[in-house]
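A quick aside before the break. I want you to see a complete sequence-to-structure record at least once, exactly as it would be stored in a machine-readable document. Don't worry about memorizing anything.
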Amino acid sequence: MVSAEGQWHAHAHGGYHPLAVDLTGFWRPRLRGCATTHYHPAARRALPAIPLGLIARVGSAGTQRLALPLAFARADGGDPRTSTHTCLLVREAVRRCAEDEVLVLDAGFGLALLHQEGATRYVVRAAKNATFRRAAPPPYGGRGRPATRGAVMRALPRAYRGHPLPATPPDRVETWQEDGCLLRAEVWADLVRPDADADGPCAGRKVHPAGKPVSFAAGAPA
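That is the input. The structure line, written in tokens, reads:
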């Protein structure tokens, strides 16, 4: 009905439409025997709440950005844990994701979960200290045991016990204009999770909009 009115238009980036996936909670601090909780950033802990998973197409009506709900996912009554609810939500999002859509998720959704549920097109925010590995191990140098895992790739620099750890140089750099902003992407291809097998799903890149870093990993090799 909303689409038929002609006021709402879905956003598109590079030919793909974003499909937002997230968990929210309706707080119930006085509800006795509440079996479910949701993390409250101000309280820095989980509080009694009725959690709800939301899957929505992102678009605009006029100049107002507006998410159009596609589906809701409730917690399992028999297993109300957040981890179980997150799995149910991602599973439903993968099932409803069209060929021209990409799942967009925050840091509460790990790469392992997305791969487990069969997600192939997604953008997910990763931790600043997130690392990956090259899918193929380095060539044998002729001494010692041959490497069975690829080299570690670090998207952002960090420090460990006072020692700086530099970022891994990207395979290539791309820049483009979008909505008046200059975007710069450092791209790594043929990567796997640090704990994954060498033939696991590939992922990895980071974007700097107008010089401000925003890290994320993509579900398909660039």
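Two observations worth writing down. DSSP finds three helices and 16 strands in the chain. Residues 204-222 have pLDDT under 50 and may be disordered. We'll return to this after the break.
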